[in-house]
User: Fold this.
Amino acid sequence: MKKRDEVLVGLMLIVTIVVVVLGSLWLARGGLAKGYPLYAKFPWGAGLKQGQPVWLVGVTVGYVDEVELEQNGTLITTFRITDDYKVPVGSKATVVPNGIFGDMAVALTPERPNPVSHSPGDTVPVGPTTPGIAQITAKADSIARAVNSVTAALEQEMVAAGGLRDMRQAIAGTNRLIAEFSSIAAEQNRQLTATMTSLRRAASAVDPVKVDSTMTNIRTASANMAEMSADLKATSARLDLILAKVDSGNGSAAKLLNDPAVYNDVRGLLARMDSLIADVQKNPKRYINLTIF
Amino acid sequence: MIRDPLIIFRRVGARGYFARDIGRAFRDPQTYGPETFRQMRNIGVDSLPLTVIVAAFIGAVTAFQTRYQLFGGVQLSVVGLISRQSIILELGPLLTGLVLTGRVGARITAEIGTMRVTEQIDALETLAYDPIAYLVVPRLIAALIMVPALTIIADAVGVGTAMLTAVTATDVTAAAFSEGLRLSFTPFQIVYSVIKAVLFGGAIAFFCTYEGYTADVGAEGVGRSTAQAVVVTSVAILVLDALTALLLAPYLQA
Assistant:
């Protein structure tokens, strides 16, 4: 009986010790399989603690094994990744909210699929931290404060300073202006309609036969103008030819224009005619001898 | 109206003397050694079925209640977290202690009280046996060892049934529950549970053996002592639970 008691008590104590060891291992690191470590350096205040899940594109691939506080403002975080999963090189580690109670998780997000994976002990670069509930709440608070101040200012301007009354007056004035514009537009529309009616009437009054005749006359005049232009061009050519002859010095006209002796003869002739005229004026009887009967 | 205003101090003092006698009795291992294993079986092994059944139902109810207390939008891994914290830190040691108070403590008081009433304790003294070394110390050692062992098993069973219940009877997945179980876990949480269990085991053995050792004459005296032992031990366990939480809970933060 005594031996049986010892066996039973020993068995129970051994079972208890096994439960403690295996249970602690399972709770602390997910079982006897150790996985492989990866590291990341997050800034202080990232909200990380041991046991939080590590996600690779949304799939739980491990957990936060250790968070070590460094005095340089960083948290050296050790991830324990299950051996079945590989983390592609180029992945960024970010701390993301997990639920609405402020809990956090680590999300590993690859930039693109990459067959090359991080080796055990590598440090994963850190990406931008997603704001948590506290940051969102703080932002919402600041927005609420801004809205409150805007509301207060609006109340001051619109109610206390009479802005609302002015706005009502402005709206009433605008309504009147719109009514005037409407009446002007209606008048313009009426006049435009009348103008269009007149135009249609004038257009219908035009005789197409007369228009054709006018166009024919215009075409004929145009043809005559072309013919006259050709004649002028021929006349101009002949004049050019005459001028060329005159310039060459051949012929009477050329000699008249180009020979200096002729010029001198003409000047002498004119001088003599002047003296003759002067003499006639002075002694008319010498040249005019009028006898009646 | 209190007839003797000093009765509280007298009772505390009497228990202090009893503790002193226990300390002296530890110097006599030849007397309490052989008896200790028998008590370990009585207190530990024989209490295992009851402890497992209680822990299993507590774990199941905790998981179920936790799941349906959550409002929409809360991640379901919280069920694992709350179940683990509730069972390991509080319900496992406390309910194991209270259950053992009823099953083991009452038995200890009745046994020793009957021996007192039938003058077997006087006979031991006549035979130059230290009755405290023979009756109290083995039960105290057994309780100090086996109650933590039962508590550890109760914790494991409770967490296991909580997970089983959450996965099979609610929409919580095994992965989500496991994630919550591991969240912010530190080995000190197990140590905390064991510290409570050691204190509860000591309280059960100490108060129940004292009440039996000082039982009044007659069957009525044994019954009264047994009832008082259960009440005093239960209250002591609750007080120790609160004191432990007050002193050690700050160290539980992961």
